[in-house]
Amino acid sequence: MKKYKFKDTVRILFRRPVVSWALYDFANTSFAVVIITIIFPVYFTGIIASPEIYSRNFGDLMWGIASGTSMIIASFLSPVFGAIADTSRSKNKFLTILTLACVSFSSLLFFLKEGMVAWAVILFIVSNVFYETSMMFYNSFLPGLSSKKNTGIISGFGFSIGYLGGLIILILIYPFAAGGIEPANLFNIKITFIITSIFFLVFSLPSFIFLKDSHAASTVKIKTSYVSYGFKKFISTLRNIRKHRDLMKFLISYFLFSNAFSVLAFYVAIYARGTLNMELTEIIMLFIFGHIPAIISSIFFGWLTDKIGSKLTVTITLVMWITVIILMTASDIKAVFYAGYILAAISTGSTLIASRSLMSFLIPRDREAEFFGFYSISGKASSILGPVTFGIISFITKNQKIALLSTLLFLISGLIILQFVKVTSYRAKETEGTGHLSEN
């Protein structure tokens, strides 16, 4: 079987469909960084759900409820959309529509002011639902863009370009956030939401234009609406998914360890400000420092995934994650927190790269979007449990460190279950290989 050389890897990565696919990660990371992780969470807990109006840590609780609710809705919709997309061969159409909707609603965050908690929760829920469901369609393109030999490196390339996008949006918004969460600077803070929406839209355009749906199988003719068929297909898949035992084990493991990622995504800026009293500019610099090594490590771990297997790579990164949580909660020294976050940024991308690669080997061909819907459910369900658990513990104990430590239970449980997953590919004949493929 042919082995890929460096020039072959470069040729594969810089094909127009692969670059267009990766640019979507470049684009959507702006939403993840600004709206989910840094600026809007701090604005929400510090201004919209101000402690001066509401009780201490009330913002933590409401942020957990908002993020959890959005994930419940997205979890419900993802496999249905996936079944529809696989049936109609319209993944690109859904990706485009959902992205445009996310951009539109996220731009409305600009109009939120102090005390507008209900409106803030509603707008965030709607925009995040569109964002999360669009990611399911984005992920479902990976099997069609890759083969057994290069799934990891292409997945890593996407994450690397995504981190680059996150780094650039942070640099763009830094001048507007430099004044901090102060009354005189709130207009500039809200401008970052508009910048993010424009950034997301512009750099998504190549994926709308150049990503094409697979024509390997003919479109299924149905007698009912796609929505009705999607629900029926989802129920059918739900009944039959237990036949794929290793896939089920992996999804359970993924659900458990993803809780840590969800907590980091939704609460790291809130934790840094609430526990370590870090200024907004310090938090932005923290993310900039985290994104730079993550850009490089994403390529490395993508390569490592292809070399040693995705299961072993996930195992290694989960051990790194356990170290991160211990490190972050062991000290109030900002330098230690910086080191912990940088390691977390490397670990998060690396784990998701290997997980996405592993998932692509466990799903039947031509049902990618449908099964990536279940993959999406596992991640989104963790985004319900993890943040809500953090918010409740933080609100009750008034201690964010105790809330953060709760993620260790999820990480360790997920790591243990992962060891029982047998990685065998269901993917049919590949470009560089034949037959029933096994990753290891």
Question: What do these coordinates show?
Answer:
- The chain has 440 residues and is mostly helical.
- It has one domain (16-211, 223-418): Growth Hormone, Chain: A (Up-down Bundle).
- It is built from 17 helices and no strands.
- The protein has helices spanning 6-13, 16-37, 39-48, 58-88, 91-107, 117-140, 142-145, 151-177, 186-210, 226-240, 245-276, 280-308, 310-330, 334-362, 368-397, 400-405, 407-418.
- Helix 4 packs parallel to helix 6, helix 4 packs across helix 10 (226-240) and helix 12 runs antiparallel to helix 13 (310-330).
- It starts with 5 loop residues before the first helix and ends in a 22-residue tail after the last helix.
Blueprint (SSEs and pairs):
Elements: H1 6-13, H2 16-37, H3 39-48, H4 58-88, H5 91-107, H6 117-140, H7 142-145, H8 151-177, H9 186-210, H10 226-240, H11 245-276, H12 280-308, H13 310-330, H14 334-362, H15 368-397, H16 400-405, H17 407-418
Provide a quick synopsis of the model.
By secondary structure, this protein is mainly α. It has 17 helices and no strands.
Residues in β-strands, percent: under 5%
Please compute the radius of gyration using only Cα atoms.
Answer: 21 Å
Name the helix and strand elements from N-terminus to C-terminus, one letter apiece: HHHHHHHHHHHHHHHHH
And the CATH topology? Answer: Growth Hormone, Chain: A
Summarize the biggest pleated sheet: none
Number of strands: 0
- Poorly predicted regions are 426-438
- Average pLDDT over all residues: 82
Shape: globular
Structural class: mainly alpha
Distance between the termini: 15 Å
The CATH superfamily turns out to be MFS general substrate transporter like domains
How many separate helices?
Answer: 17
Helicity range of the residues?
Answer: over 70%
Number of domains: 1
CATH class descriptor: Mainly Alpha
Oligomeric state of the chains? single chain
> In the CATH hierarchy, what is the architecture at level 2?
Up-down Bundle
